[in-house]
Design brief:
- The chain has 84 residues and is mostly helical.
- The protein contains three helices and no strands.
- The chain is extended and about 50 Å long.
Length: 84
């Protein structure tokens, strides 16, 4: 959560207002919980080297794709798969 918020702040993206817990529709066996996040927390970042095909790189750069954000989101999605 904190990485997402810090990324949105850095990229000057919209941060939605929190949804009231009573307004969240849940399916059977789902639950909601309140999460508090401090955006003042310093995050340590590690630099990674990435190799991709040249043509994909050219297209991605033209599209203005943020490689760090895409990798970050992909890693988080993979981690979430392991939790399920």
């Amino acid at each position: 959560m904190i990485l997402t918020l810090n990324g949105r702040i850095k990229d000057k993206e919209y941060i939605p207002e929190p949804t009231d817990l009573k307004n969240i529709l849940l399916a059977e066996k789902q639950y909601s919980s309140l999460v508090e996040v401090s955006v003042r927390t310093k995050i340590k970042y590690d630099k990674k080297t990435l190799t991709i095909p040249h043509e994909i790189n050219v297209q991605a750069e033209k599209a203005g794709i943020n490689f760090s954000r895409v990798l970050h989101q992909a890693v988080l999605e993979e981690l979430e798969k392991d939790l399920v």
